[in-house]
Amino acid sequence: MNKIRKQYLPFARAGIQTLIAYRMNFLGFVIGGLIYCFVMYYLWKAVFLSSGGSTFMGFSMTDMVLYLFLSNMTSQLTFSSVSTDIGEEIRDGSIVMRMIKPVNTDMSYLFTELGGAFMKLIVFGLPVILGLETYRFAVSGTVMFDPLNFLLYFVSASLAYLISFRVNLCFGFVAFYVKNLWGIGILKNSIIGFLSGTLIPLAFMPDILRIILEYMPFASMSYTPVMLYMGKYEPTEILLRISLQLVWAVLIYGLSKLIWAGAVKRLSVQGG
Amino acid sequence: MRRFFRIYRILAAQNLKRVMEYKADFLTGAVSFLIDQAVGIAFIFIIFSQIPQLSGFTFEQIVFIYGFSQIPKGLDHLLADNLWCVGYFIVRKGDFDKYLTRPINPLFHVIAETFQVDAIGELVVGISLMIYVSGSVNLYITPLSVILFLIAIPFAALIYTAIKIATAALAFWIKSSGFVIQMVYGMNEFAKYPTTIYSLPVRLLVTYIIPFAFAGYYPALYILTGNDPLFNIGGTVLISLIFMAIATFIWHKGLSAYESAGS
After folding, report:
1. How many domains does chain B have?
2. Nearest to A183 among B47, B53, B118 (CB)
3. What is the domain extent for residue A27?
4. Closest by alpha carbon to A221, among A171, A146, A271?
């Protein structure tokens, strides 16, 4: 344990420092995300008005606001730039500097990312939750905050983080084969955005599609924690969803190891 | 003027050669933007599976507006993509010096340098969507309206470019302005839907301050209804010229404040 702390904590610290150094970029993404949430907010408001009812497929407008901001925040928190980072390092060859160090390559990435994620949680996650709870209080007149749901959210979001990290790692390995990292990034974001329910709650999708997507790893990356926070699941379903996340975390871990083992043989670094 | 065209042709040809060299990359890029669009459409589709119309617009009309909004966006993406790089790293790494040492206008050179074929994804989707629903929406088609509509397209694209020039130019002072471009550019989301769904402050914002509504909704509304050409089309032309003037002004101010950076 002590060894891990000594070996990997510097990576986490470096992650925090990188985020602070590039805080303006981070701020840009946060504000960009919020703008997007507001566009969606107005769109959903119009949808609610046009549908005439006070709920839309089991969601009230308050639910919808909660869902929009929470899922956007969760996907920002679990967002991992490891796919572009590793891609860049593969391309310019600096990945060898990681490989010759006496540390586990993907663990070093993980800890760098964790440092950044910790900062995001403090400066972005908590204020959003505070804002949402204030909003819910203002709308309903009672305190809606549920500590148990929050705890479940935290556990589930941590699992989501690990899954997202590994999925991104797998996308990063594509850089061994394709050079258009920008395109891969867009592809990855739109696929994950849709399949993880960030764009539209999976609950709104046609039944067959919904059931398939709920069992895919993408739902584990933001949909599950958000639904837990909102208290949308029964106790048995809570267990099912969290175990499913665990299963995916293990499977994706295995997959990323497999791809790495295969891809590293192709690694050829030009120059230095 | 002819010189500019000749230089542009040479630079674009260089770009196309690069694309042919890395075919897989081009395919990845185009397919990525295509899928990104497909997801956007799926979203509208799922919403409309539950409601017959949105703020008085039918499914087909919303798809038409959405499709149209992708065309100016795609044109700007195709022709002026390099501005992102100016904001993100060209200035920060000191690579901007290159443009200053050449005997052509630096702004023109930056823009002409990249011909971003990934944009085909947006253009193809936009045009196909408009064609797909054109049978089921009542378009206001007269010779004049078609001409006005076509005139609006390049000006609408110019709104995107102007906003990118103005925000990229901030890098001349603050070294890296990628995040500002990202933030402001992100507001183009507003252009995809009727502005009537927004509250008044937001509507004023996307109409006059960051005028993406003129780069999507308003021109599309004109061809859908034939209403108010002076505002819907004239506004697009006027706003884009005003913003282009402001943007080039900021760019030139920035150029004179530029100090080389990097090692």
Report:
1. 1
2. B118
3. 2-264
4. A171
